[in-house]
Design goal:
- The structure holds two protein chains of two kinds.
- Chain A has a seven-stranded mixed β-sheet with strand order 7-8-9-10-11-18-19, covered by helices on one side.
- Chain A has two domains: 187 residues, Ribonuclease Z/Hydroxyacylglutathione hydrolase-like (Metallo-beta-lactamase, Chain A), CATH 3.60.15; 125 residues, Rossmann fold (3-Layer(aba) Sandwich).
- In chain A, strand 9 and strand 10 form a beta hairpin.
- In chain A, 25% of the residues lie in helices and 26% in strands.
- Chain A is globular and about 65 Å long.
- Chain A has ten helices and 19 strands.
- Chain B is an alpha+beta fold.
- Chain B folds into three domains: 148 residues, DNA ligase i, domain 1, CATH 1.10.3260.10; 192 residues, D-amino Acid Aminotransferase, Chain A, domain 1; 126 residues, OB fold (Dihydrolipoamide Acetyltransferase, E2P) (Beta Barrel).
- Helices cover 38% and strands 22% of the residues of chain B.
- Chain B is built from 20 helices and 20 strands.
- In chain B, strands 3, 4, 5, 6, 7, 8 and 9 form a seven-stranded mixed β-sheet that branches.
- The longest helix of chain B has 13 residues.
- The termini of chain B are far apart.
- Classes of the chains: A alpha/beta, B alpha+beta.
- Chains A and B meet through helix 8 and helix 10 of A and helix 5 and helix 19 of B.
Chain lengths: 334, 549
């Protein structure tokens, strides 16, 4: 299958590698030269020498790694650059602020690496672009037909309704939303309904990057600034679900915002009351749509349910294979 | 005709609610809407049970049958159905995410009852599959979810049968103790609900040959836990057999197992012996293999289990006896609420005929006396001791502190996992059943299989690892590279031809993961032989038994 990805990507112990550009693609650990699709930790490991990414991703990377001393090279969406006879062009992936798909082209060959992506509209990410490519390397986080999410409008309506009911009952809405991307989206949705939100430090410290991109958070404040007041909603990463910041709120209703919320078991795992499939990833329908619109000759699936998605695509007449990944990476930001 | 959707939506709401009171309220609201046969069936379905407990009926639907039906209805191939169940953690939930929402009204409550009863009668998997397909084509996602959960034997909504009892009490303004008693005596939450609605709970009487739940004991690890109040306990040997309830009327004898299955036919000699005792009664006791006037090992008894009609040679080779230790019903009178002492008096009066074997009862005043009794029980070939409060009532189907069991876990072994399999029920879709091995030179030889002891989280994490280190697949079983080390505890060690090691562990349970150990560190077959000698006093010849697994 490596031949499907050649001449663009080969595998090295450090991860996926583009020889012509001498860049590792979202490598799991520090490398001299890295091309990053977005700033989530499972794609943007700490300590790279040089980083190629969108300006937003670089800014978020710097914010998360303030001691980083490497060199940054900003890539602009839909502005190709060339090296060693290869063209690299970034396109918005709709996942989070700054997230990009990467298209490699040489001669008549081309490869689109989606990184993490979402096709439905979002409050904070540039809307996705759908460039054509002959080979598509697509994420498969939710690559099974059970993973179908409601429309964005319905999800937002349910989120606001759950918060209002909770507040009306004199309880605190606690939103479990990871710190980069979902927390800011949730805060914006709540603000649009007039609900003030209190953000965990991990999400709060990233707001300047969102503000620089034109977002405003008039009804949000940092958790550290004052105790929770009636009428406020708390937004914390899922890893905090069983820690004192959540558990000490005796009157609370915990709302889990994730594609994984379709698993009823997450209720018990996270001590959550409301499960809302609010995701920054493509659901199964969007995955199939993306394949149809990119219209590649071959599809390589990776990450998550790569094997089932490749099998399903094959059944649908698309030539597809899962990527044999040397190791799997899972973090909260999947 | 009330639609099943009313129940499914109530169960969904219960699943999403926090706290027992909220759950009781939601269940009570649903029950309050029902009457007559719909109430009887509805109460059973809300408690997750397709039939009355006393009915000797099960739907017997395997995971694969449901998966095939789901595949036919949704159009997804079986592999995808299996992957979806694994991803979501439950087949019923996965199917509910694959079936479309229906405009038309789904099946009525009584239609669901008829469907379940049909499954109970059908013998062929293909017939069951067709029936499930037919109903799935008419159900909306939430209905599909709870129907399939009912078939898999667990709703997992944080509400057990006592929650439903309390909901019945709340819905119909009855006392919950009375509801619980009526449920126990009738063996049917449905009949109980109907009687509660009509305020006729007092009319429900225990009936012989309706199996009821067993009172269970809590384990104690250390004699110090009970030594201070030793005199309040009646003490008996803990027999190494299987629990059974013996029902006897003038016309009939029946034996029911802990799973409330009728096992009378499996133990004809016991049934015959009980038939010779005059009177009508319900006794609690233990079925044990019987050799030379004393109980033999569970291993021997095991060869008698599951044989519907044992042949004469086996009956002669391994005779089984029933040792009674409680009397719950005698000459038309239910004794559940009576203290143990009174029940014991009745038991002794029945045994006075000379034809019933009953347990010996001991007393102890302190820890030393308990230790002595324990050693004597072990010397008699029994597992340990049972301690029963002399003033306690019989709490059918409950595990409480009134009965305590004391047995010593013999030892633990460090083992390595060699094969894994998907679990069922609560752990459907997870690789939760592990076959494990000890080391024999350069080889690993299997010694047992265990299902529990780890958290779902641990099982899931291990599942990812096992998928990666799978070396071969045999149907549902994955052989895995021997890498994952576990510590397992067990009750006893026995010789067995089932595993290549020549030994089997009785009641193995996973104590913990041992990521600190490598496969090279696991116990060896020599360790096991030595342990066997130490535990049984018998020398263990090196096994020359072929691997049958």
């Amino acid at each position: 299958m490596t031949d499907w990805l050649s001449p663009f990507i080969e595998f090295r112990p450090e991860g996926m590698y583009c020889g012509a550009l001498d860049l590792y693609l979202d490598p799991p650990a520090a490398v001299p030269r890295a091309l990053l699709s977005h700033a989530h930790t499972d794609h943007a490991a700490a300590g790279h020498g040089e980083v190629w990414a969108t300006a937003e991703t670089i800014a978020l990377y710097r914010r998360r790694h303030p001691d980083w001393t490497g060199a940054a090279h900003a890539i602009v969406y839909e502005t190709p650059f060339q090296a060693s006879g290869m063209t690299l062009e970034a396109f918005p992936s709709g996942h989070i602020l700054g997230a990009a798909q990467m298209r490699f082209a040489a001669g008549d060959r081309s490869l689109l690496y989606t990184g993490d992506f979402r096709r439905r509209p979002s409050r904070t990410a540039t809307p996705i672009a759908t460039p054509r490519a002959r080979v598509l390397l697509i994420e498969a986080t939710f690559g099974l037909p059970v993973f179908r999410f409601p429309s964005r409008a319905e999800t937002e309506t349910r989120l606001v309704a759950a918060c209002r009911e909770t507040l009306a009952a004199g309880e605190t809405p606690v939103l479990l939303a990871y710190a980069l991307g979902k927390a800011q989206e949730a805060a914006i949705v709540l603000a649009s309904a007039g609900i003030p939100s209190v953000l965990h430090g991990a999400a709060w410290k990233l707001l300047p990057e969102y503000e620089a991109a034109g977002q405003a958070f008039p009804l949000s404040r940092a958790y550290e600034s004052a105790p929770m007041a009636p009428g406020e909603a708390l937004i914390v990463p899922p890893r905090c679900a069983r820690t004192p910041i959540v558990q000490k709120l005796k009157k609370r209703r915990v709302i889990y915002l994730s594609g994984w919320a379709l698993r009823a078991a997450s209720r018990a795992e996270l001590d959550a009351d409301v499960l809302l499939p609010f995701s920054d990833h493509a659901d199964f329908t969007e995955l199939l749509e993306h394949v149809a619109e990119v219209a590649p000759e071959r599809v390589v699936t990776h990450h998550g349910f790569a094997e089932p998605l490749a099998r399903i695509l094959t059944q649908k007449g698309v030539e597809a294979r899962p990527l044999e990944e040397p190791s799997e990476r899972h973090t909260e930001e999947d | 005709m009330t639609p099943y959707r009313v129940l499914a939506e109530a169960l969904e709401a219960v699943s999403g609610s926090r706290g027992k009171l909220a759950k009781i309220g939601l269940l009570a609201d649903a029950l309050g809407q029902l009457e007559g046969e719909e109430l009887t069936v509805g109460a059973r379905l809300l408690s997750g049970s397709p039939f009355a407990e006393w009915e000797q009926t099960v739907t017997s639907v395997g995971w694969a049958t449901v998966a095939r039906a789901a595949s036919a209805v949704t159009g997804w191939d079986l592999d995808t159905i299996g992957d979806c169940a694994g991803a979501i953690g439950d087949l019923g939930e996965a199917v509910s995410l694959l079936v479309p929402e229906h405009e038309a009204e789904g099946p009525a409550i009584l239609e669901v009852d008829a469907f379940l009863r049909k499954l109970g009668k059908q013998r062929k998997a293909a017939e069951k599959q067709a029936a499930i397909e037919a109903i799935l084509r008419r159900t909306s996602p939430v209905e599909a979810k709870y129907l399939l959960k009912t078939l898999s034997g667990g709703l997992r909504i944080g509400a057990d049968i006592t929650t439903v009892e309390e909901a019945i009490a709340k819905a119909f303004g009855e006392d919950r103790e009375k509801v619980a008693r009526a449920r126990r005596d009738s063996g049917d939450i449905g009949e109980t609900a109907l009687a509660a609605r009509g305020h006729r709970l007092a009319e429900i009487r225990f009936r012989l040959f309706h199996p009821i739940g067993f009172m269970l004991a809590s384990p104690i690890e250390d004699v110090a836990e009970v030594a201070a109040e030793a005199p309040i306990y009646a003490i008996e040997d803990k027999f190494d057999g299987i629990r059974a309830h013996a029902h006897r009327s003038d016309e009939r004898v029946a034996l029911f197992s802990r799973t409330l299955d009728d096992v009378t036919g499996q133990f004809p000699e016991v049934a015959r012996a009980l038939g010779h005792i005059p009177g009508s009664f319900l006794l609690d006791g233990e079925l044990v293999a019987w050799t030379g006037q004393r109980p033999d090992s569970f291993f021997k008894l095991q060869r008698r289990l599951g044989r519907k009609e044992p042949e004469a040679e086996l009956l002669a080779e391994i005779p089984v006896a029933f040792i009674a230790y409680d009397c719950l019903f005698h000459e038309g009178e239910a004794l559940f609420e009576q203290p143990w002492e009174e029940r014991r008096r009745r038991l002794e009066s029945i045994a006075a005929s000379g034809q019933l074997m009953i347990s010996d009862v001991f007393s102890a005043s302190d820890a030393a006396a308990l230790e002595r009794l324990f050693e004597e029980a072990r010397a008699r070939g029994n597992e340990g001791l049972m301690l029963k409060r002399r003033d306690s009532s019989y709490q059918a189907g409950k595990r409480g502190r009134a009965w305590q069991k004391w047995k010593k876990a013999t030892a633990t072994l460090d083992v390595v996992v060699t094969a894994v399999e998907q679990g069922h029920g609560k752990r459907a879709g997870m690789l939760s059943d592990y076959t494990f091995a000890v080391r024999d030179g350069e080889e690993f030889v299997n010694i047992g299989k265990a299902y529990s002891g780890l958290t779902d989280e641990e099982i899931r994490e291990l599942g990812t690892r096992f998928r990666k280190i799978t070396t071969a697949r045999y149907g549902p079983v994955r052989a895995v590279s021997p890498e994952v080390v576990l510590e397992v505890a067990f009750d006893t060690l026995q010789k067995s031809s089932r595993h290549k090691s020549g030994f089997a562990l009785r009641f193995p349970r996973i104590v913990r993961l041992r990521p600190d150990k490598t496969p090279a560190d696991v116990n060896t077959l020599d360790d096991v032989r030595e342990l066997y000698t130490r535990l049984t006093g018998a020398p263990s010849a090196p096994p020359a038994i072929p691997d049958s697994t």
